[in-house]
Design goal:
- This protein has 494 residues and is α/β, with parallel strands linked by helices.
- It has a single domain, classed as Alpha-Beta Complex (Spore Coat Polysaccharide Biosynthesis Protein SpsA, Chain A).
- 58% of the residues lie in helices and 11% in strands.
- The chain has 18 helices and 8 strands.
- β1, α4 and β2 form a beta-alpha-beta unit.
- α2 (34-69) packs parallel to α16.
- The radius of gyration is 24 Å and the shape is globular.
Length: 494
């Protein structure tokens, strides 16, 4: 009988096997059955053109909702519709590692600029015991500059080498959440009345974010059964970043815009908000994995037997790209960040394992959740390679018999038409990038806008080297049991 360890290892291998099997089969069939592969590539490209159209539609839908949401005075709306809004406690968790003061201060300043009163916001800043001097320095600056401006500022120090955890954001937050539980219990707070936001330290909120969050939370019939996901824009230091990094930052922002309109597959990502009751019910953010930001959704979803959702927020939070002092180190950080995000593949074995334990969730819900998670990682790793590299292989290696067929003769023209249609997605991306681009800093020339358009010609390169390859790297590590730790993304500003 197969042991639990070997069963889980099998689950960990399956995503990587499905991805590598796809790649090897398409290469082998390109030589063995080139005509079959030509048919497959044509059908796949038609499918992808449909996907691009589908993506563009939801992108514009979310954009319209975003533009409408940011024009509303949500704090006035909150006070008018929910006179007892003050019974809810607005708590923000900020895990800290080695980020500099010029990254921390703008985040706290954005809270002060919020339409939601800063005097009603509780800050929980959780640093690392392995960085004692840095933590003490940041704490001193926070007290000097922000004391008395918030309801309270609470500092925690995450100890080193606690059992059953890996160093990283997840273990830091987990420790802070359970320490904060003592703080809340001492004051007799109801957990459902604590609106908790878990932010990266570089998260700069829109002035209406907390008011909009409080409004949605109060308006939700069961706020403890929902997370609240904002639109994430990676544009704090966009103008200073290399072109490849800008493209990937825009791509992530576009993906978030698209995902917010797709409620059937929306999960939490990066900075998000939720009920403290849900956090306690599911055991807190995971302390032994890398992708705790999306795992917390699945923990709650399983804890409540599939009765859990994500409410989209069309109010943005702005974050940093992975910019470093040199161009080369910036690209290295980008690769490592993308690999860390792709390590979310670890959710697939987790879900397969938990589905065997939980018999209360209907199978159609299980299949739907698993499909969206698995298909997302498969597409991430495979699509760019299929379209840009393997898609032309059967045309290059086909024998004379295949070359004489009408399909072979017409295939290049058909592929060119399909790729031209797919390039409309590139045009949409270029236009949308200009719409969410932050104001040009004074030290950048006006012709910088031209480079913001021309950079999109680098998209095929970025998709191969900074999207597909990091994902293949991550799923292969998981497949062979070579577990990745949490790498901290370096984010610097000029």
């Amino acid at each position: 009988m197969i042991s639990n360890y070997h069963r889980y290892r099998l689950y960990e291998m399956l995503p990587g096997l499905s991805i590598w099997l796809t790649i090897f089969l398409t290469i082998i069939l390109s030589f063995a059955k080139p005509l079959w592969m030509i048919y497959f590539i044509l059908v796949f490209d038609v499918y992808w053109v449909i996907r691009v159209s589908y993506f563009s539609f939801y992108l514009f839908l979310s954009w319209r909702r975003f533009r409408k949401a940011v024009k509303i005075n949500w704090f006035e709306k909150l006070k008018a519709e929910f006179p007892d809004w003050e019974k809810r406690k607005n708590v923000v968790f900020l895990p800290l590692y080695n980020e500099s003061w010029d990254v921390v201060a703008p985040t706290l300043d954005s809270f002060l600029k919020s339409s939601f009163p800063a005097g009603k916001t509780y800050l929980v800043i959780s640093g690392e015991a392995r960085k004692p001097e840095h933590l003490q320095g940041i704490q001193k600056l926070v007290v000097e500059n922000y004391s008395g401006k918030f309801a309270d500022i609470i500092f925690y120090t995450h100890p080193e080498n606690l059992p059953d955890e890996i160093p990283g954001k997840g273990s830091n937050i987990h420790y802070a959440e359970w320490e904060f539980k003592k703080y809340a219990d001492q004051r007799g707070w109801e957990y459902i009345d604590i609106i908790t936001s878990v932010f990266d330290i570089d998260t700069i909120v829109h002035s209406e974010y907390f008011a909009h969050l409080a409004y949605l939370y109060n308006n939700h019939p069961r706020p403890d059964h929902s997370s609240f996901q904002p639109l994430t824009l990676y544009n704090n230091n966009l103008w200073e970043s290399p072109a490849i990094i800008r493209i990937m930052a825009f791509g992530t922002s576009f993906w978030m815009l698209f995902s917010l309109a797709r409620l059937d597959s929306l999960v939490t990502f990066s900075s998000h908000s939720m009920s403290f009751k849900a956090i306690m019910d599911c055991g807190g953010h995971s302390k032994d994995i890398v992708s705790e930001d999306s795992r917390i959704f699945y923990q709650c979803w399983l804890r409540y037997n599939g009765d859990y959702e994500v409410t989209p927020m069309y109010i943005p939070v702005s974050m940093d790209t992975v910019r470093d002092d040199s161009w080369w180190r910036s690209l290295k950080n980008l690769y490592l960040q993308q690999r860390r995000w792709a390590w979310g593949t670890e959710h697939i074995p987790y879900l397969l394992w938990q589905f065997r334990q939980n018999k209360k969730i209907p199978w159609f819900k299980k299949i739907s959740v698993l499909f969206h998670e698995w298909e997302g990682k498969w597409s991430w790793a495979v699509v760019a390679i299929l379209i840009t590299l393997i898609g032309r292989l059967p045309l290059w290696v086909a024998g004379n018999e295949v070359r004489q067929s009408a399909l072979f003769f017409n295939a290049p023209n058909i592929l060119e038409i399909l790729m031209t249609l797919a390039m409309l997605g590139l045009l949409v991306s270029a236009v949308m990038s200009m719409l969410i681009l932050p104001a040009r800093p004074e030290n950048h020339p006006r012709h910088g806008y031209l480079f913001m358009i021309l950079q999109w010609f680098l998209l095929p390169i970025s998709l191969i080297f900074f999207s597909s390859l990091p994902c293949l790297d991550a799923v292969s590590h998981l497949m062979f049991g070579k577990y990745l730790g949490f790498n901290v993304s370096v984010k610097k500003r000029s």
